[in-house]
Amino acid sequence: MTITSRKARIDKLAENGDAGVSLVASAWRRLRRSPVFLVGAAIIVAFVLIALLSPLLAPHDPSATLLLDQVSKAQNKIPDPQPGYPLGGDDQGRDFLSRLLIGSQQTLMVGVLATLFGLAGGLVLGTLAGALSGWVDTVVMRIVDVMLSIPSILLAVSIAALFVHPNQYTVIVAVAIVQIPVFARLLRGSMLAQRASDHVLAARALGVKPGAIVFRHMLPNSLSPVIVQATIVLATSIIDAAALSFLGLGNPDDSVPEWGSMLGRSQGLLDSHPELSFWPACCIIVVALGFTLCGESLRDALDPKNRR
Amino acid sequence: MALLEVRDLTVQFRRRGEEPFTAVDGVSFDVDPGQTIGLVGESGCGKSVTSLAIMGLLPRKGNQVTGSVRFEDTELLSLSQSQMRDRRGRDLGMVFQDPLSSLNPVVSIGLQVTEVLERHRGMARKAAMVEATELLDKVGIPDPGRRLSEYPHQLSGGMRQRALIAMALACRPRLLIADEPTTALDVTIQAQILALLKELVTDTGTALIMITHDLGVVAGLCDEVNVLYGGRVVERAARHELFAEPRHPYTHGLLASIPRLDAPRGEKLVPIKGSVADNIPWDGACAFAPRCPNALDTCTQVTPEQESLANRLLRCHNPVEVTA
C-alpha cells in the first residue's frame, strides 16, 4: 500500500464525513419551515403584487371626484359604500378603495427607495469608518452618535421641514438620512470584527493589497447583519414616511393617494367616519408588520448559533 | 550566508497607562536555505509574536519591534508597509493554525488561490486558474478543478489546510513560516500535512520555520530546534542532540511530560509544575526559576546569559546533567 493511495482514501473519507451546508442554504431551509417568515413573506408578496397591479385592480380613477354630489361638508356627510364603491368615497367624493390600492405604490416606492438610499449612505460611511479607522472612524462615529441621539421621527421631520417644496422625494431623502447612522454603525462594528479575523490576517500574510482586503475580504463578510437590518428598516421607513405625510410634510398634491396623507385627511372625521382612518392605518400596520416579521425571522435564520 | 538572520528581535506591547510588556526578548536565530527550524514553547512564550514580527504583520500602533531581521540582503524591519506587502506572499509565506477561519468564507477557493497569483506574479485570471489547479493537485487535493469553485465550508479540515499551503507556496517563497499548522487537525490529517510540508520543502528548497508546542512535530520535521521560554531562546540544538540530551530544565520537563510507548507500565508522567502565569521578569532572574526543579539561589538573583556549549546554546545556571 503506497502512501499516496492511503492519503487519497483518507481524504475521501474525510470529504464524505463533511457534507457541508452553506449558511445561506441552511438559513433558507429554516426559513421555509418558519411560520413567522411565511406570514411575513405572504404579506410582502401580496403588498408588492397589489402595488404593481393596482392600476389594473383599482375600479376607478383615484383622483376623480366621482361621488362629489354625495359629499356635504356642512352635514358632515361622505359617500357610503354602494355598488361599485365597496368602501365608499372620501371627503372629496373619490373612490376610497381605489385610493387605498393605488396608495400602496407610494408606500412601496418611498419605503424601498428610502431604505436603499439609507443603506447606500450607511455602507459608504460604515466602510470608511471600519476600513480606515483612526480619525476618520472617530469623526464618522461621532456624527453618527449625534444623529442617533435625536429621536428618528423628530430628525426626519426636521430634515423634511428644511425643504421649501415638500414632495414624495423630499420624504425619501428625509427618511433615508435618518436610516444612515443605523447602517453605518452596524457595518462598522462587523468590519472591525472582520479586521481582527484570522482570514484577514491570512490575506495580509499573502501580501494582498489593502483595497482588496477591504472589498473582497472584509466587506462581504460584514454584510449579513446589515441586510437583516435593511428588511427591518423597511418597516420603519414605511412608518416614518407615512408619519411625515400625515404631518403634512409629504406630497402636497392630494390627487396622488398616499396612506399617511389619507390618514391625515380623515382624522377630522374620526368621530363620524372612523373607517376612513381605519383602512389606511390598517394597511400601514400590516405592511410594516410583514417586513418586521420577515426581518426578524431572517435574523434568527442567519444567526449561526441557531444552526443545526 | 543564511537566508534569514534574526538578531536580537524584541517585541514590546505598549499600552497607554500600562507598563510595556515584552513578548519577545532578544531572540536570535538563523535559517539557511532548505533548512527547517523549529520554534517550540508553550502558549504565551512568544513564538507566534516572533513569526508575526518577521512577517511584519504586527500592528504598528502599540507594538515596538526592535532588533534586526535580515532576509537575504534586505532588512525587513526597515521596509515600508507597501514594500513589505510586496514581499509577503512572494518571498515569505505563512500558514496559520486554524484552516477554517484562515480562509475567507464567502470567496471560492479558486478565487483565493488566484488572488495571490494575480497579485505577485501578475497572471491573468485564466492562466492563474490553470496554475491554481496544478497547485491544488500538488498539495494533494483530489479533483482540484471542482474544488476551485467550492467554498471553504465545503472542504474537509485537511483539504482546507492543503489549500492554505497551496496559497502560501503559490509564488514559491524562499521562506515559509508555519504557525502551528496541524494544531486544529486530527492526528491522521496532522501526519499527512506534516508529510506534505516536508515533501514540498525538500522539493523546492524552501526554508521552513515551524512554530509549534508539539514536540512530536519537531522530532519528525526540524533540523534545528529553538526552545522559547518567556520570550527568550533558552536552548537551541540540532534535533537529535535536543531529544537525546535536553540540558535546560524546561526542555527536559517538556520531554518528560510526553507519554512514551517504551515506558514501563504504570510509570507516571512528570508535568512541569505551575503555569506561564508564574513567570518572573528576566531582569535579574531566570523567568523559569519559580517552576524549575533545579533552581538555585542564583536563579532568582542573576539573569542567565546565553552560553555556547559544544553542540548547543543554553541559557541556564544549573543545567540538567548529561546522563551518560
Salient structural properties:
heterodimer; A: 308 residues; mainly alpha; MetI-like fold; 11 helices; 72% helix; elongated; B: 324 residues; alpha/beta; 10 helices; 12 strands; globular; ATP hydrolysis activity (chain B); ABC_transporter-like_CS (chain B); nucleotide-binding (chain B); Oligopep_ABC_C (chain B); cell membrane (chain B)
In short:
The complex is a heterodimer of chains A (308) and B (324). With 308 residues, chain A is mainly α.
CATH class group of chain A? Mainly Alpha
Helix amount of chain B, in percent? 25-40%
Uncertain runs of chain A: none
Q: What is the total number of structural domains of chain A? A: 1
Silhouette of chain A: elongated
Determine the most extensive contact between two protein chains.
Answer: A-B, 32 and 42 residues
Structural class call of chain A reads mainly alpha
Give the percentage of residues in beta strands of chain A: under 5%
Write the H/E string of chain A, N to C: HHHHHHHHHHH
What is the radius of gyration of chain A computed over CA atoms, rounded to a whole number of angstroms? 25 Å
Task: List low-pLDDT spans of chain B.
Answer: none
Please tally the helical runs of chain B, counting DSSP H or I stretches of 4 or more residues: 10
CATH superfamily of chain A: MetI-like
Distance between the termini of chain A: 39 Å
Order of helices and strands of chain B: EEEHEEHEHHHHEHEHEEHHEE
Beta content of chain B comes to: 15-25%
CATH topology of chain A: MetI-like fold
Which assembly state applies to the chains in this document?
heterodimer
Can you characterise this structure?
The complex is a heterodimer of chains A (308) and B (324). Chain A has helices at 3-17, 23-33, 35-57, 96-132, 134-149, 152-162, 168-195, 198-205, 210-246, 259-266, 274-302. Chain A has 308 residues and is mostly helical. Chain A has a single domain, classed as MetI-like (MetI-like fold, Orthogonal Bundle), CATH 1.10.3720. Chain A is elongated. The model of chain A has no long low-confidence stretch (mean pLDDT 85). Chain B has 10 helices and 12 strands. Among the domains of chain B are: 98-172, no CATH class; 232-314, no CATH class. In chain B, the strands form 2 sheets. An 8-stranded mixed sheet of chain B has the order 6-7-8-3-9-10-12-11, sandwiched between helices. A 4-stranded antiparallel sheet of chain B has the order 2-1-4-5, with helices on one face. The interface between A and B is large, with 32 and 42 residues. Chain A: Belongs to the binding-protein-dependent transport system permease family. Chain A: Residues 104-295 form the ABC transmembrane type-1 domain.
